[in-house]
Amino acid sequence: GASGGESGSAESSAEREPVVILLGWAGCRDKYLAKYSAIYSQKGCTVIRYTAPWRMIFFSETFGIRSLQTQAKRLLELVFDYKIENRPVLFHVFSNGGFMLYRYITEMLHTDKPFKNLKVAGAIFDSAPGRRNLIGALRALAIVLVSTNVFLKYFLLFAFATTAVLLRILLYPLTSFIHESHYDALLNAPSRWPELYLYSQADAIIKASDVKHMADTRQQLGVSVKDVDFLDSAHVSHMRAYPTYYRNLCTTFLSDCLRASPH
Description:
Layout: E1 3-5, H1 11-14, E2 19-23, H2 30-41, E3 46-50, H3 54-62, H4 67-81, E4 89-94, H5 95-111, E5 120-126, H6 134-144, H7 150-169, H8 172-178, H9 182-187, E6 195-199, H10 208-220, E7 225-229, H11 238-241, H12 243-259
Helix pairs in contact: 4-5, 6-7
């Protein structure tokens, strides 16, 4: 679900206070996201936390069903219900689960009239994005299913692997025509706000080379990009391994985005 934390300061400054939207990873619990919220709420930001259901992330998107599009629209409507469309917005996106949602959100910002006025200041990507990577996806799904009945867990992993393989081998030309991959969609996305990529060579789910390729390609398009390789921290565990460094990277990036001209 989505939850928000308002800061209680004077109305005049509140109008300029940034809004941070955290898009969680598949199977992410709100209590984990809350730790990231604290980075921003301590700086006086309004924080909205949202994680899409893991079934949608793994199954619907693999089949090319765009069920996350509806979630993206709901989230943008929520932002407008908060009456915060005039304030700068920072996206903080985790893993491919958050990244898929971010893809649809950014598309809607360019195509849907009511959302075009949203002032996006920048985007942070933690452990994302990765190209289609079946081994990484299975590892991610296994983590999500860790507390599930063993038989059901292996059945779901098998079902996911076989459908993913079938889609790739038999239907790939068709599915790629209908459903451009999230990675490819973002490589050439029209957005030009600054981007910060936080990743690690030690990530067993998202390849560091995928993140680096995305960062380099975006930079060549004229986007202001910063990328930081944590080298030895695991998937979505960079803040746990390096809390002070991670917080400083995020808050410095936010300040830099707010100083830059609004997009």
